[in-house]
Amino acid sequence: MLINFIGAVMILMAATILGFMKAGKYRERIRELRCLQTAFNMLSSEISYTATPVPAAFKKIGSRIDEPISCFFLKSSQLLDDPSQDDFSTIWRRVVKEYFHQTVLLKSDEDLLLSISSFIGVSDQQHQEKQIKLILHQLEQSEEDALEAMHKNERMWRYLGVMGGLMLVILLY
Fold first, then answer.
1. Do 13 and 136 contact (CB within 8 A), yes or no?
2. Residue 104 DSSP symbol
3. Residues 79-97: b if buried by 16+ CB within 10 A, e if exposed
4. Is the dihedral of CA 151, 152, 155, 158 positive or negative?
5. How many CB atoms lie within 10 A of CB 4?
6. What is the pLDDT of residues 90-117, one digit of tens each?
7. How many Å apart are CA 57 and CA 55, to the nearest integer?
8. For 25-81, what is each residue's pLDDT tens digit?
9. How are the residues of the chain apportioned to helix, strand and coil, as percentages rounded to the nearest 5?
10. pLDDT (tens digit per residue) in 10-37
């Protein structure tokens, strides 16, 4: 009887934890989108006011923002410092593909990240600033969508975890 009770509690706890983990991904996506906005604001400042070279700007940005977003900038900076490596576009695409799985961002966010490879270090300062503003606007829109999804789904996943665990316990015993 005691073993059945302990088993039921463990099933309930596992289902609850799974529900809370799923719900937490909505909040984490918002944090990562805000982190990306901070990074692109910093990049815009580096381009506009100090004309910092891309590797140095990425290193500075990567050291100031949280993981896993910082990985994109730090790894790109490291590869850009090596003269035997490819151009910025190839390096950025490779790094985004390599580290994107560590985030909870969506495919549309990945496409947005990949789009900067087409203008950073290639076009003039004004064009880069305009493109970064456009990306920031798209990130703000993604954040609004993520907030709406979080309000809509976060509580549901928490309850679903608890209720799913209870239902499983009832069915098993």
1. no
2. -
3. bbeeeeeeebbebbbbbbe
4. negative
5. 11
6. 888 888 888 888 888 888 888 888 888 7
7. 6
8. 999 999 999 999 999 888 888 887 887 777 888 888 888 888 888 888 888 888 887
9. 85, 0, 15
10. 988 999 999 999 888 999 999 999 999 9
